[in-house]
UniProtKB/TrEMBL annotation:
Keywords: ATP-binding, DNA-binding, Endonuclease, Hydrolase, Nuclease, Nucleotide-binding, RNA-binding, rRNA-binding
This enzyme's EC code(s): 3.1.-.-, 3.6.4.-
GO BP field: mismatch repair; negative regulation of DNA recombination; rescue of stalled ribosome
Role: Acts as a ribosome collision sensor, splitting the ribosome into its 2 subunits. Detects stalled/collided 70S ribosomes which it binds and splits by an ATP-hydrolysis driven conformational change. Acts upstream of the ribosome quality control system (RQC), a ribosome-associated complex that mediates the extraction of incompletely synthesized nascent chains from stalled ribosomes and their subsequent degradation. Probably generates substrates for RQC. Endonuclease that is involved in the suppression of homologous recombination and thus may have a key role in the control of bacterial genetic diversity.
Organism: Campylobacter devanensis
UniProt protein name: Endonuclease MutS2
EC top class named in words: hydrolase
Subunit structure as annotated in this protein's UniProt entry: Homodimer. Binds to stalled ribosomes, contacting rRNA.
């Protein structure tokens, strides 16, 4: 496993992760991956303290099974485990972690042992009164030693022999540094000599007190052994539980270490699924200092990476394998987890380095063949092969590998391959299970782009790379001549195809964006028509009711016998009829000219051309034909006619230095955050606090990406524990 991590440039990553473990263990986590992922999410929502370092207790458990007596320090290691589980049980976890912890019942006889030790792991003297008197006596002996040494230092008959007045510690013994001839003034034992020829002497009086101290420590050890014997007997009765809790601690330690590591690096988790697809969004390999994030959609059996030298092909291969490997072991990574999907693989194989070695008497090509022979017939395996044609003739390698790889595709394998050989790519490209991706080259600036284009064979740009790294132009020209016009023409065709493909993809992207805008405009037009129809129907219904009222009043007046009443009723009917507000008709259309900004319902645009009754307007790159009678001016002059713009900002009535986004959707939270930062800038704040929580990480990721792109944000960092910790951001404006 370590060899694979080293091949994929993940050694530093693994070392950094291991620092968060309480004790070393394998990367594998027992249990269901989905359940483990859900527990990790619940752990991520809390700011838990990490467990203390714990020693390996396998040997201690074996000796307990044989009724041996453990040392008091080994008992303390078990107590640290029990103490940490008690701490976890007191936390407010979700259903998964709570359900797991509730199943763990700690025997009371084991639980109370945690109270035997203080924070430094020392056995508490309050447990046994004899320890109190021993510790007190030991302190007194220490005090007597100090007083005796000070008394000797200031003795007149010894002062001529003292080199200095310091107390020196030699092999845990207090000693004085004296000159030769000290025997007449000091009784003691020489325990060392200095580089200057002086003597370190342990005075007899101090030696006696040290011996008495040693006797006290022996008595203390005897008392501790008595307690260790009793506790070991309790451990023997609860051996099954101790084995379980020791294993459970490794499980919990693995989960918490992953979460702590992820928070320290701002990484995300991706749960490997049952598919064999590898879809990466904005992935950054942890070994890169300033990575250019990659996005890959690999659903076939083979991904063939071609293109420019030093263009990132090998790192792309390592990135794909690394992401799949980290997902398998539920290790965090720098990735957009919401847009990524990674399948599950049983094994991984990286054929990357040159296997040629004088010690093993093997050639490069033979080593490659040996590597392939080992993986033939394996299933559920992800393989990475860097520079597959290495070590033999290109033409022969192309034929051999095309047959070999085609055969392997019938098995349950997935391969990522880099190659400079276009013939191999062309032979494999016709297979629907083979996906092509090319490393791009910036021909204008003569350097790799470290970007990749899917669906095309790339050119190696060997001659351009040689020129870029200082090879004389005349030598490059001679090399091109030796290479041959036909092959160079093929390279030119590939280069043109790359550029055309890239241009086509950009145009397709532009068309897709316009289609989205058009869909939005059509939706707005449809909604505008529905509102207009509803308004018209409501107005017609109102007019019908008002006219019906007037007509009924007139009918009532006609049937009246009294002339005055009849006249009064007809007058009232006439008044009602005149009071009816009829729809107004535009007598004259509005005057428009090309370049005016107009609005049709909610749709805004600029007038491009005018006809007798219609106008062509441009709305976000989409042209619309709209009747002039339905357009309204928007009080905004065309951009090319603006001479000056006056902007006035009013200070907000109430501005805060903190915003809480808990419980909001990402889009709603970002909208509020944008206004919050604007108000803070107007109010003159230079630092604000954003609380977003941890949760699934989606809201935290959205906030982080928004802050990265905001032009007024100078820097941001996680808040202090009192400010929300990893669930908050302190932003400098």
């Amino acid at each position: 496993m370590e060899e694979l991590f080293e091949k994929l440039d993940l050694s530093e990553y693994l070392s950094a992760y291991n620092e968060f473990l309480a004790r070393p263990k394998s990367l594998f986590i027992s249990g269901d991956s989905k359940a483990n992922y859900e527990k990790i999410e619940e752990i991520s929502s809390l700011n838990l303290k990490s467990p203390k370092e714990i020693a390996n207790l396998d040997d201690a458990l074996m000796r307990v099974s044989k009724q041996a007596v453990l040392h008091i320090s080994e008992i303390y290691e078990f107590s640290k485990i029990i103490e940490y589980f008690n701490y976890l049980k007191s936390q407010n976890f979700g259903d998964k972690m709570r359900g797991y912890l509730d199943k763990i019942e700690i025997p009371s006889s084991i639980d109370k042992i945690c109270d035997y030790f203080d924070e430094n792991g020392e056995f508490k003297e309050s447990i046994d009164e004899r320890l109190i008197s021993i510790n007190e006596a030991y302190k007194n002996k220490k005090k007597q030693i100090d007083e005796s040494l000070k008394k000797l230092i200031y003795t007149k008959h010894l002062s001529p022999y003292l080199v200095d007045t310091q107390i020196h510690y030699i092999n845990s013994n207090e000693a004085l540094l004296v000159r030769g001839g000290f025997n007449h003034a000091l009784k003691g034992t020489v325990i060392a000599r200095s580089s200057g020829g002086y003597f370190y002497v342990l005075p007899d009086i101090v030696s006696k007190l040290k011996s008495e101290q040693s006797d006290l420590l022996d008595k203390k050890e005897e008392i501790l052994f008595e307690h260790a014997k009793i506790i070991s007997a309790i451990f023997h009765k609860n051996l099954s539980f101790l084995k379980f809790i020791n294993s459970a601690f490794d499980y919990i330690d693995s989960l918490i270490a992953r979460v702590s590591f992820a928070k320290s690096k701002d990484y995300n988790f991706v749960l490997a699924n049952s598919s064999k697809d590898i879809i990466l969004s904005e992935f950054a390999h942890p070994a890169l200092k300033n990575p250019k994030r990659i996005s890959v959609d690999f659903r076939g059996k083979i991904l063939l990476i071609t293109g420019v030298n030093a263009g990132g092909k090998s790192m792309l291969l390592k990135s794909i394998l690394s992401a799949a490997l980290l997902a398998k072991y539920l290790l965090p990574m720098s990735i957009n987890s919401t847009k990524s999907s990674i399948g599950s693989f049983k094994e991984f194989e990286a054929i990357i380095e040159d296997p040629q070695n004088s010690k093993n008497d093997i050639s490069t090509f033979a080593g490659r063949m040996l590597g392939f022979s080992k993986i033939l017939g394996k299933k559920q395996i992800l393989i990475g092969v860097d520079e597959i044609e290495l070590g033999t003739d290109f033409e022969e390698a192309a034929s051999l590998y095309s047959v070999l790889l085609t055969s392997m595709m019938s098995s349950d394998i997935k391969m990522v391959i880099t190659t400079h050989h276009k013939r191999l790519a062309m032979l494999l490209a016709k297979n629907s299970e083979v996906e092509l991706i090319a490393a791009l080259y910036d021909e204008q600036n003569s350097r790799p782009k470290y970007e990749f284009l899917k669906g095309i064979i790339g050119k190696s740009y060997a001659f351009e790379t040689a020129s870029r790294y200082g090879i004389p132009a005349n030598l490059v020209a001679s090399a091109k001549s030796a290479y041959g016009d036909d092959k160079e023409n093929l390279n030119e065709m590939i280069s043109k195809a790359l550029n055309l493909e890239l241009e086509l993809k950009l145009k397709l992207k532009s068309v897709e964006e316009k289609e989205l805008k058009l869909d939005e405009l059509l939706k707005d037009l449809k909604e505008a028509k529905i509102r207009a129809d509803e308004t018209l129907r409501a107005r017609l219904s109102s007019l019908e009711a008002e006219f019906y009222k007037a007509i009924n009043e007139a009918k009532r007046g006609i049937n009246l016998k009294d002339t005055k009443e009849k006249q009064r009723s007809l007058n009232n009917a006439n008044f009602i009829a005149k009071s009816i507000q009829k729809p107004t008709i535009l007598s004259e259309p509005i005057e428009l000219k090309v370049g005016d900004r107009v609005k049709y319902d909610k749709i805004k645009g600029v007038v491009l051309s005018l006809s007798k009754n219609d106008a062509i307007i441009d709305s976000n790159g989409v042209n619309l034909r709209v009747p002039i009678s339905l357009l309204k001016p928007t009080n905004q002059s065309p951009l090319n006619n603006q001479k000056s713009v006056n902007i006035s900002l009013s200070r907000p009535n109430s501005a805060s230095v903190m915003i809480d986004l808990h419980g909001l959707r990402s889009d709603e939270a970002i909208e509020r955050l944008d206004k919050f930062i604007s108000d803070a800038l107007i109010a003159g704040f230079d630092e604000v606090l954003i609380k977003h929580g941890i949760g699934t990480g989606k809201l935290a990721y959205a906030v982080k990406e928004f802050l990265k792109s905001h032009p007024s944000v100078k820097a941001f960092k996680d808040g202090a524990p009192s400010e929300g910790g990893f669930g908050s951001k302190v932003v400098k404006l």
